[in-house]
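User: I've been trying to design a sequence by hand for this structure and keep getting stuck. Would you show me what you'd pick, starting by listing the structure so we're on the same page?

Assistant: Good idea, let's start from the same input. This is the structure you sent:
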């Protein structure tokens, strides 16, 4: 408790989406909030992960739009000396691209910092560590020479995660890279080998392919994006292959070595893949080591994630954990929701426990994959009961006009009631199109209610209405 104001004292360790949102919520409720951040406000989400990757993807979309414009009758040519037209090359200036995205990231970090300061949050630059469930030490000097100590009624740990490193494929920051190191490349890599075909691997493989790199994708599973809707992943894999990507299925990388001129990836079956650069996208590890958590009595999982309940509280009443360091779902949107929920709960405000089923998520490949609610696998495994309707975008008039060939809308409706229980959209800008399905899911709307809503004609959302209409059932 702050002795002068009587406000509750809250210390937040880590200023990514989880920590920043928690700090803002605390300030809004009148708490005395101190935010400790060792690198920059916005965290990895803003500085190395979400903002740079999605900015790179915006560039990749522009490059792909130029490539695909020909199909809609747009032609680019320059006249040579003889007056005859020549097709110009589309070139991406990677230095300019990287400058732009790093500057966007830096600016967003500064904007967030200013917003927190305006709200009254005290920001301390340094590395925080728990010394008890209500005491945090911060090393503010280089190599831990200077220390500050903070008493807290509540501590919120939001320290995020870092790229997983394999001992036989250690990143050198030049040829063998993690996703945080990609933005130092001066030129579009001649041949990028991406190890790992989860969301991170798939997004970067697609983006670099679209900006002109030759790409090989080392995928340990039968298909890329193993945790996604199988039909959606199949569309993406087909698009990848059609664009010339070398997808190596059921292939695990055993080691990666840098040579004088490039990299050699040795697969577990002995095959070797040579390229100019290698991106390691083999998952993340939580930044929970050396934080004093176990010593303070906070329970961790075997993977080092902090165990939390649905309001983000750990086994210790005064300690909460939010975002990628907790054992929930590593998404920026979830980190923010947890941050807010944790702070409200700690300060005694009303909260609803977080339901992951309602989280809309998106994979920013081209086309994108957006999902919400129960999925086909849940229906097949009989965890949920529902009917499935798929409408392919090749049947959608607007998609035809726009030259969109790949993608679909898939809707799940509960048997009997017809309530929307989930959906998948594979389409350009699926991240924007999923919102009506998310609204329907959250508010328990039925397919008949959706079918009654007028979509614009012609529009991609028309396929959502079509899927809902097809799910209409006659009531006996
Ligand atoms: C390539 C990539 C793309 C992604 N794209 C998306 C996307 O499009 N949409 C989406 O929702 N999610 C996306 N994610 C996931 C998203 O980045 C994470 O879920 C999000 O960053 C989690 O936020 P956080 O607050 O938990 O942690 P972080 O953003 O990792 O922030 C944690 C902060 O804590 C600081 N910190 C750590 N230890 C200490 C300490 N001891 N003392 C002080 N500070 C400390 C770190 O410096 C860091 O700034 C992506 C992830 C990756 C890898
Ligand atoms: N658009 C987004 O919202 C977005 C983008 C990126 C990441 N994320 C979040 O981050 C989470 C993690 O995604 P991720 O892709 O970073 O990690 P992941 O753990 O989901 O995928 C890593 C993949 O690498 C494979 N792998 C591991 N070792 C390998 C080896 N030696 N050779 C070949 N493959 C190997 C694994 O089998 C796995 O499929 C996502 O679930 C998501 O929550 C979100």
């Amino acid at each position: 408790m702050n002795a002068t104001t009587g406000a509750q004292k809250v210390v937040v360790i880590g200023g990514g989406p989880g920590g920043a949102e928690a700090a803002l919520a605390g300030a809004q409720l009148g708490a005395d909030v101190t935010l400790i951040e060792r690198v920059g406000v916005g965290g990895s989400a803003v500085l190395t992960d979400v903002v740079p990757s999605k900015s790179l993807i915006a560039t990749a979309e522009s490059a792909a739009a130029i490539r695909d414009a020909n199909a809609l009758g747009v032609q680019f040519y320059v006249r040579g000396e003889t007056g005859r037209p020549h097709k110009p090359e589309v070139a991406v200036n990677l230095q300019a691209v990287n400058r732009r995205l790093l500057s966007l990231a830096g600016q967003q970090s500064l904007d967030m910092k200013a917003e927190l300061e305006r709200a009254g949050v005290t920001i301390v630059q340094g590395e925080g560590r728990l010394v008890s469930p209500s005491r945090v030490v911060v090393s503010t000097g280089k190599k831990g020479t200077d220390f500050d100590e903070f008493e807290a009624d509540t501590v919120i740990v939001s320290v995020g995660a870092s790229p997983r490193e394999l001992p036989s494929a250690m990143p050198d920051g030049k040829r063998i890279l993690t996703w945080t190191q990609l933005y130092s490349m001066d030129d579009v890599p001649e041949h990028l080998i991406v190890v790992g075909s989860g969301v991170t691997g798939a997004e970067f493989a697609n983006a670099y392919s679209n900006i002109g790199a030759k790409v090989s994708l080392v995928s340990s599973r039968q298909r890329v994006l193993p945790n996604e809707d199988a039909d959606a992943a199949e569309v993406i894999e087909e698009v990848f292959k059609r664009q010339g990507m070398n997808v190596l299925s059921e292939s695990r990388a055993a080691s990666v070595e840098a040579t004088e001129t490039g990299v050699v990836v040795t697969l577990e079956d002995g095959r070797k893949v040579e390229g100019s650069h290698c991106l390691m996208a083999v998952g993340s590890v939580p930044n929970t080591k050396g934080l004093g958590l176990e010593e303070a009595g906070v329970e961790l999982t075997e993977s080092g994630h902090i165990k939390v309940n649905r309001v983000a509280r750990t086994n210790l009443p005064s300690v909460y954990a939010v975002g990628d360091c907790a054992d929930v779902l590593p998404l920026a949107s979830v980190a923010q929701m947890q941050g807010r929920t944790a702070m409200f709960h700690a300060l005694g405000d009303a909260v609803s426990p977080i339901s992951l089923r309602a989280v809309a998520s998106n994979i920013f490949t081209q086309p994108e994959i957006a999902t919400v609610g129960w999925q086909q696998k849940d229906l097949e495994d009989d965890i949920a009961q529902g009917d499935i309707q798929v409408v392919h975008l090749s049947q959608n008039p607007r998609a035809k006009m726009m030259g969109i060939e790949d993608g679909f809308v898939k809707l799940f409706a509960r048997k009997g009631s017809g309530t929307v229980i989930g959906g998948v959209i594979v389409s350009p800008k699926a991240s924007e199109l999923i919102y009506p399905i998310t609204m329907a899911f959250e508010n328990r709307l039925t397919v008949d209610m959706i079918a009654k809503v007028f979509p614009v004609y012609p529009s991609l959302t028309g396929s959502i209405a079509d899927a809902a209409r097809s799910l209409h059932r006659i009531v006996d």
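That's my pick for every position. To get oriented when you compare it with your attempt: The chain has three domains: 9-47+99-163+285-357, 167-282, 367-475. Residues 94-119 form the longest helix (26 residues).
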